[in-house]
């Protein structure tokens, strides 16, 4: 039988005990009274085989035996900073300036969605930190920007997605990808990024995975659309298994995957995706603020209630798509007190279906709103309703909370990470519209409860700033991805990750020679 150290090098899973057996072996071999340490190579290999590699926090002794064993036995625990944490975490310039290639599909600049805010705020604070960014995004719009926050934008041609024709996607394997002096590959090579940050899922992911491997660059993948849930919503449930297989193939080739809520992080790990971490949420609490409720003399509330500003008002703001489960709001509306109004703010491919479904009911559809009008639409609601079951986070929920409005939402996806049930809003069981109607009616009938929950929601939203979220990404998570890249290269030797056959050979040797005790 190989020793514990040899087994670790070969990547052997010792029966059903796995990492715990290796940890016990290493404890016997390398924890004498003189305090000897595991060598960095052993720690890197152990982490690669049994747990995502983690970048040690400031002040933690490098590769100490206790640190290594804890990582192997329990998996990594990545603390999330809050406003009361180490002030270094919100110092944008703590890490050295970097060059980041940001690939976003679909575009966050002409396509309105929750993640548009996330990427715009990320770019805003990377600019403040002094980083250089090259942006790549598919966009056929004549209004596609050539630069954002002073950063150049490479716009590539794409195609309209059949299930959602408002967005532009791209495969990325055209001749402009590889060939020519101004090919996409050549322009990224000239930019020479320290890492590539790719938004997933999408079609462009395969080309960027290849580009990262060819250029030997660390790759961060951020996960924004819960693909298996969308497959189910659009009647493609038979493809859910395939969706998870493709996601494992793509995301496990990234050096770090960022998900937007703890619930989605857990689900990705349960389905075999490694090196997953949380992209901390943020909100612009000045853009979304209770002061917008009456700053226009009540004109927005009159608009949303179709001229009945004193009537109870429910508001939904967001994309009008089948995956948002909007038709279920009809049952909730009909259970509300007489005269209650419902307003839909937003647009999408499901708009006509929604309009037909709610025909004859006191419902207003405004289309998309922007700027102060959008802030007023949030703030003048009595209750914000969110029936979607597919949110990876749910930015509109956080924006409603920042506006001082209580939220009634489905307890699904990333939304439970935002709402404290009974304090900042209510969560109802998926598909249980009767439960949702009970919560909505309770809020509409009790102004004191609405005010108390709205104030608590505002206080919760004030804890999350985009500055701190971006500082955590560039100071900790980008470092972690680059560290993972070095440790995964050639099994931990810190060389360019280009000889995957060496890992294959190591596994073959393990299968051929290793015999469990």
Question: Which structural traits does this protein have?
Answer:
transmembrane; Rossmann fold; glycosyltransferase activity; alpha/beta; 20 helices; eight-stranded mixed β-sheet; 517 residues; membrane; transmembrane helix; disordered N terminus
Explain what the structure shows.
The protein has 517 residues and is α/β, with parallel strands linked by helices. The chain folds into three domains: 4-77, no CATH class; 87-282, Glycogen Phosphorylase B (Rossmann fold, 3-Layer(aba) Sandwich), CATH 3.40.50; 290-461, Rossmann fold (3-Layer(aba) Sandwich). The chain has helices at 4-10, 19-30, 40-50, 65-74, 114-129, 175-178, 184-191, 205-215, 227-233, 240-251, 262-270, 299-304, 329-334, 351-357, 371-379, 395-402, 433-444, 447-461, 466-488, 500-513; strands spanning 99-103, 132-138, 147-148, 151-156, 159-161, 164-169, 195-200, 219-223, 256-259, 276-278, 313-317, 341-345, 363-367, 383-386, 407-410, 425-428. α1 packs across α2, α3 packs parallel to α4 (65-74) and α9 (227-233) runs antiparallel to α10 (240-251). It starts with a helix and ends with a helix. The relative contact order is 0.12. It comes from Cyanidioschyzon merolae (strain NIES-3377 / 10D). This is Sulfoquinovosyldiacylglycerol biosynthesis protein. Keywords: Membrane, Transmembrane, Transmembrane helix.
Name the CATH class of the largest domain. Alpha Beta
Tally of separate domains: 3
Percent range for β-strand residues: 5-15%
Helical content, roughly? 40-55%
Sheet with the most strands, sense and barrel status: 8 strands, mixed
Rounded mean pLDDT score: 79
Low-confidence stretches: 1-85
Which geometry do the CA atoms define? globular
Tally of individual helices: 20
First-last Cα distance: 7 Å
Biggest sheet strand order reads 3-4-2-1-7-8-9-10
Computed over alpha carbons, the radius of gyration is 25 Å
Structural class: alpha/beta
Q: How would you name the CATH homologous superfamily of the largest domain?
A: Glycogen Phosphorylase B
């Amino acid at each position: 039988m190989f020793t514990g150290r040899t087994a670790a090098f070969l990547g052997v899973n010792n029966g059903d005990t796995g990492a715990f057996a290796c940890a016990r072996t290493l404890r016997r071999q390398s924890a004498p009274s003189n305090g000897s340490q595991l060598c960095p190579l052993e720690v890197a290999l152990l982490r690669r085989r049994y747990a995502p590699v983690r970048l040690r926090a400031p002040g933690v002794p490098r590769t100490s035996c206790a640190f290594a064993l804890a990582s192997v036995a329990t998996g990594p625990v990545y603390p999330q900073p809050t406003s009361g944490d180490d002030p270094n975490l919100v110092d944008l310039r703590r890490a050295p300036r970097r060059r980041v290639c940001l690939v976003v599909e679909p575009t966050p600049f002409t396509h309105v969605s929750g993640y548009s805010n996330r990427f715009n705020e990320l770019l805003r604070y990377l600019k403040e930190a002094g980083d250089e960014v090259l942006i790549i995004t598919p966009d056929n719009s004549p209004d596609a920007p050539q630069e954002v926050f002073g950063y150049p934008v490479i716009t590539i041609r794409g195609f309209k997605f059949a299930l959602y024709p408002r967005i532009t996607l791209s495969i990325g394997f055209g001749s402009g990808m590889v060939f020519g002096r101004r090919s996409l590959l050549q322009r990224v090579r000239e930019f020479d990024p320290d890492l590539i940050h790719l938004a997933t899922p999408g079609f462009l992911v395969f080309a960027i995975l290849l580009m990262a491997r060819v250029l030997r660059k660390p790759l961060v993948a951020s996960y924004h659309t819960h693909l298996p849930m969308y497959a189910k919503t659009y009647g493609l449930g038979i493809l859910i298994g395939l969706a998870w297989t493709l996601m494992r193939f793509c995301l496990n080739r990234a050096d770090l995957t960022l998900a937007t809520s703890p619930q989605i992080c857990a689900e990705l790990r349960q389905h075999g995706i490694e090196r997953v971490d949380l992209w901390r949420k943020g909100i612009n609490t000045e853009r979304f603020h209770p002061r917008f409720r009456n700053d226009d003399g009540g004109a927005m509330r009159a608009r949303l209630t179709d001229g009945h500003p004193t009537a109870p008002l429910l508001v939904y703001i967001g994309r009008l798509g089948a995956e948002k489960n909007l038709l279920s709001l009809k049952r909730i509306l009909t259970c509300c007190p007489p005269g209650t109004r419902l307003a839909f703010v937003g647009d999408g491919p499901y708009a006509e279906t929604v309009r037909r479904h709610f025909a004859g009911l006191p419902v207003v559809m405004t289309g998309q709103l922007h700027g102060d009008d959008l802030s007023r639409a949030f703030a003048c609601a009595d209750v914000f309703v969110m029936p979607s079951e597919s949110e990876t986070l749910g930015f509109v929920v956080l924006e409603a909370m920042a506006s001082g409005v209580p939220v009634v939402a489905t307890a699904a996806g990333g939304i439970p990470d935002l709402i404290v049930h009974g304090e900042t809003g209510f969560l109802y069981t998926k598909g249980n519209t009767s439960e949702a109607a009970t919560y909505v009616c309770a809020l509409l009938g009790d102004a004191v409860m609405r005010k108390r929950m709205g104030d608590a929601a505002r206080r919760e939203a004030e804890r999350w700033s985009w500055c701190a979220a971006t500082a955590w990404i560039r100071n900790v998570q980008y470092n972690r991805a680059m560290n993972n890249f070095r440790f995964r290269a050639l099994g931990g030797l810190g060389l360019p990750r280009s000889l995957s056959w060496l890992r294959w050979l190591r596994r073959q040797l393990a299968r051929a020679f290793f015999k469990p005790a």
